[in-house]
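In this supplementary section we document a worked example of the pipeline. Step one takes a protein sequence of length 1069 as its only input; no multiple sequence alignment statistics are reported here. Step two produces a three-dimensional model, which step three serialises into structure tokens for compact storage. The input and output of this example are shown verbatim.
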Amino acid sequence: DNTCSARASSAYRTCLYSTPICFVMFGLLAVATALAALPQYPKMSSAQGIMRHRGRMAALSLLDGDESMEDVVKKPATHANRQYRYKTLSSGMQILMVSDPDTTSSGYSMAVKVGSFYDPPELPGLAHFCEHMLFLGTEEYPDPDEYSDFLAARGGSSNAYTASEATVYQNEIGTHYLKDAVERFSGFFINPLFNKSSAEGEVEAVNSEHEKNKPESTWQMFRLLTKLALPESPVAHFATGNKETLWDGPKRKGVDTSEELRKWHKKHYCANRMAFVVFSDLGLDELEQMTTPIMEKVSNRDECVAATDFGKEPFPYPPSTLGNLLRVETSSPRPLLWLHFPLADVNPLYASLPHVVASWILGYGGKGWIGAELRRQQLVTGFDAGVAETSTAVAHFVVQFELTETGMQDVRNVVRVFFEAVEEQKRAGVQRDLVVGLQRKMNASFEYQQVTTDAMEIPSTLAPNLHLYAAQRVLTAGSLIEVVNTSAVEALLTQLQPNNMNMFFMDPTFEEGAVEDEFYPMRYTQSKIDASSLLPKDGSALVVPTAAFTEYVPQKLEIVKSSSATDFPSRVHSEDGLDVWWKGQGMYRGDKSFVPLPKAAVQIGVHLAEGVLVTATEVALAQAFVEAFTDDLTENFADALGGSGIGVEVKVAEGRLDLQFGGFDDRMEAVVDLILDSIWSFTVDNRTWERSVATLKLDMEDVSSSMPIQLVKEDFNAYVSKDGLRRKDMVEAVSNSTEMTQENMRVVMQAALARARIDVLIVGNMEEGRAVELSRKVKASLRNATQFETISPEEQQMQLVRRPAEDDTQLRVANPLPEDKNSAVYTSVSFQAPTTAEEMLAWVAMGSVIHQEAFNYLRSERGMGYVAGATVQPRNRGPWTLAVYVQGAKEAPEVARNATLTVLESFAETLKKTDEDHVRAWVAGAVGQLSQKPTSFSDEVMMAWPHIADGKPCFHRRSAMVAVAPSVNKQTLLSAYAMVQLGSAGNPKRISAMMYGDGIDFEPSTDEELKALKLDIPPQTEGGAAAEVRKLAMDQNDDIFFEPVAACPSGAASWMFLPLVSMLAMMLF
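The serialised model returned by step three reads:
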């Protein structure tokens, strides 16, 4: 039901959290911000970190008339320097102005109280189509690409999404251009063109978006969930829209979609149904003087109608719609079971958040409760519960199980355990101490939240909240328990009954579906549930969660005063096998306007020697080790990890074992010690190991939640990496039960850790001495467990990039998604890394502009697919790449590939025709990106860690680029872009990775073709393998590998270089 369009350089910013992967599409509602503040446990799903609140309800406006109130918003202590001013115009439009001196760019968002629930029955998807069309020209600026080109050329970006009862538009731009950008944006709501020519092309983009969603199991499940609602309810309607519902079908009936869209917009896009938020480093007075006159031009037309309160209409799920079991055919190997309980809108419950407390209770991962018991019986690999979406019409409380093969054969027992837990919790009652403990933890998390200055995210979060809550509560609602109400939690649990739900079982073995869905490629059967068979047995052995976690809630919240913290990490300690990097409070230092936090982030990297964890079997065993270890943490250390507010992540990648810790520093050493005590010689029972291997196998086999463009990029990465492994290699390895044993895992991990060195990076509320002491404990712990031999930085594994000998190479693979007609093309040109700050800045300046040109040509002009664009990918080590990509079903990959080549060639002509004024605007936009400061300790770690891990830190690259901005001109850009022209001094190599959709005949690349370019790496010899590999790589640099480190320009140190050239590079891939 939640759809989005992609515009400008951050095309997937919204689409990613709208992608339906384990509730991500729908958001688990107030669990959105609330669960982020609750005690966190290692989860089987990463969805919580990016969940979004999608519900809409009638506005609770604080003021009437053209009045304003300053600092009305209740804010955390860390927002001390951020000012808010709320205002309602005489038209009824709500405006919230946010001034923050620490942001380096500005953002603005409009939330309109109209969404897919308002679609005319004869035009499903019209609200979503309107969202797309508003970007394509207004009376003042009729060029369809004008708005997105204006933003992209100035380092800005935009996006939008359509929810059930709201449509939200979000934008970011340099402050210097804010007024001009808002002027252009206001036309969306005053006089959009809705040209028929643009509509006919854009409907292809909407259709491609739906085609992208069709194979994904969660989209399919939510379609069935809503389909069972009363047919006349808007909940049951198809919300995304496609070419048939929006264009071809209406055309056959003589309906002009463009004209209907124009009428619909006049009816629903009214000022009194709008909330506008602007965020900037400008002062409140200046923001008000700038934006208010512009927004006063948005009016309430004669055609305007009031928003509908769908809560006053018949409930969409009366008893006649419940008690159903839908068994669904699926092409995914992952069996899923959903229980859907339709509840009344939970938004009015923002003060007590009973749904959030219930979600925490049910999802508790400790011993003896639902998840642990189901895993003990080998029935599930994953479990979660909560409100997936809310609206004035209904709140969807969804319980999701990821089943094992055993669980797939015993679904009733899975459900019976769940209801046994619900009944046990109801009998025990909800402890007040538990809710008070959650309240304390949420209060601490709210008051000490890290301050983000994300100029796009902040306004787009606040704007829809103005339609939900009084202005005072736009930050606190969903984040704080203001009233402890155990009765409300118990009342909600009472509604979780077998006769108040529908069940959806996605069964990979089922082939007898009798009913075919109209919009998604799935067949299913529908039958009635025997509720009596799901009732719990007597004598439950389940252990109800208690307030034990409160013992670990942080108590010491004092701030360390340190004068020696710097803008970038310093190596504060070095000894045999250990380097300690420290940054103190970093961006939160006392000499800056940020408020320091009692939190810290600890990154531990154990670098492995060349020659280990290379084969698919070795990598699979290491990944199964991580899966089993995380599973063990979930159950055995739930209270300690949850109560302490410290998150833990373990991963093996890029020749390292990484341990990441983040949260309140009060219990940091205790949690680190807890992990170190078990990880080096980790062992679990055989059932847990077998379940972990099975989970890993499903993760490898299941491609249903990935887009073809992601899958073809995955193949591309395997192809160009020195030791790259394709997904099929990993599936074969993890499927070999003879090799995938716990004994082999221990052998592999012991061998991997036998020769190593350690880097530790600590950012946050820790004294330098404390950081060193913690780091030395890490080394001592590993040495005590393994007696590891120290390696030098030159001996650690290198992540080299393989390049083909030919200038132009093709990689051809089949789309692994059954019946998915989408093809995808990823054309990448690798070229010699820039060596000067001027060249680097030129590429940053060109990045978003190239993306926009690719987007305009591939999607808007050619209509080749919803997913289209370009990305520049810098590397600390190795070549840089420029890639153009497109995904869609309209054209064959060969045609799409030629189109991507056209983009690469035409941009050279674009550069030649561009005047110096436009180039200066591009450079200014790039400087704005590079000047952005990190917004959290985790951001600081993410930005610094690649430099430290590579062993070649260059922390001041960003400031060096900013410093040379005045000297970068059109000729600088022309010279930089010449590096990607075949045959140039940049020695570029072009690879087109092409994935063919279902039904297209082609000759796939053979294993022999792929292996032909593998570098023959010498066998490992004592102490010399890495040196031999490096020498051979350098000898064959022109044809095989790029290994040289990108230049580290001289200049005043300020902050490190993060590839901000395209957010898509980080988020999509």
